[in-house]
Q: What sequence folds into this?
């Protein structure tokens, strides 16, 4: 089998494994915006003017293992279009309009330990494969690629799409299979890939440009958003359409499946709403739309904005054109947090798989890591 491969140079990581690094120097940097207290959340003794003693807390109790409550990550030469934590939470990856993927450590100084190069167009979406050892990327150059996140080697390059590839996702997150994934494009086609095969193993034709993808944990059902304002689902075993979710009045720009149960789907749209869909077989809601979240508008840029669930399925989050990250209570629909800091539209949000940490990427070319 003929494979397209590309390597970047490697260097030792803190755990002794090889990590990908760029050709010359790693360009990304991280800044702690709030210095970590030198105390370990214990009280500090202060002497008052009247020689009395008082106990004061050194600061709010820390909720994560990050170096500081907020970390600002910079280095991309273009808009950050996509960013996600690895399944272990120890690393994160970011993709940009500069055609590069940066690999970062979540903890310590958030070192940018590697850069993946090979696409000729901007990175529109990236996803970690279940083991955390591989990445897949979708690009405006019309290709989808799979990468070894340890060595930096490009394991596969798919070139069957005829238009920009807007989205990609693993197909067997529940089973842990690192070889099967899907891609969706402006050409209206949803392609199913196996890294062990040269060509796509199946093609689903929708007829309209596809903007977003998400797959059920079992890998048997895949969901795609489109310009028709709907979310269509297919059975990947029979390639037949299963359902169509209707309710948005604008193009669907991002999808996410609930990570704990797989019972819910989250979608963003140009209609300025974020919707929660109940995927359970015996849902009592006729159109399956359980809740509509507001407060995270799209802007004239019409950017892809990818939403996220937290690990416990108690909160959902989305970026917006108002330069903030909005986090809602999934059950009540109330806004828990409205987090500022970015200087442009927030395009991607992701929750840490283990700790209360949220990640956001923006068209301002930067990312924030923050405790919640």
A:
């Amino acid at each position: 089998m003929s494979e397209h491969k590309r390597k970047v140079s490697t260097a030792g990581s803190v755990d002794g494994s090889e990590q990908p690094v760029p050709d010359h120097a790693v360009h990304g940097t991280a800044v702690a915006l709030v210095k970590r207290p030198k105390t370990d959340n214990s009280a500090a003794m202060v002497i008052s003017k009247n020689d009395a003693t008082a106990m004061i807390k050194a600061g709010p109790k820390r909720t994560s293992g990050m170096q500081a409550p907020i970390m600002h990550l910079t280095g991309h030469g273009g808009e950050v279009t996509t960013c996600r934590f690895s399944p272990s939470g120890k690393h994160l990856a970011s993709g940009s309009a500069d055609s590069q993927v940066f690999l970062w450590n979540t903890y310590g100084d958030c070192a940018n330990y590697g850069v993946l190069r090979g696409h000729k167009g901007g990175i529109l979406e990236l996803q970690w494969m279940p083991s955390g050892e591989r990445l897949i990327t979708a690009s405006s150059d019309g290709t989808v690629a799979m990468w070894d996140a340890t060595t930096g080697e490009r394991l596969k390059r798919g070139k069957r799409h005829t238009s920009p590839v807007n989205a990609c996702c693993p197909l067997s997150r529940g089973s842990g299979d690192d070889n099967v994934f899907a891609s969706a494009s402006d050409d209206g086609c949803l392609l199913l890939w196996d890294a062990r095969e040269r060509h796509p193993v199946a093609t689903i034709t929708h007829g309209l440009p596809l903007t977003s993808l998400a797959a059920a944990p079992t890998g048997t059902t895949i969901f795609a958003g489109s310009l028709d304002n709907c979310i269509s689902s297919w059975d990947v075993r029979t390639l037949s359409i299963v359902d169509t979710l209707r309710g948005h009045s604008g193009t669907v720009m991002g999808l996410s499946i609930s990570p704990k149960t797989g019972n819910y789907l989250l979608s963003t749209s140009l209609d300025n709403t974020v919707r929660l869909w109940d995927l359970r077989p015996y849902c009592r809601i006729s159109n399956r739309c359980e809740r509509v979240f507001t407060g995270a508008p799209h802007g004239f840029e019409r950017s892809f904005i990818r939403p996220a669930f937290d690990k416990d399925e108690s909160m959902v989050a989305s970026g917006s054109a108002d330069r903030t990250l909005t986090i809602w209570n999934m059950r009540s629909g109330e806004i828990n947090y409205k987090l500022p800091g970015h200087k442009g539209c927030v395009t991607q949000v992701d929750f840490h798989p283990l700790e209360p940490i949220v990640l956001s990427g923006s068209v301002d070319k930067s990312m924030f890591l923050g405790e919640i």
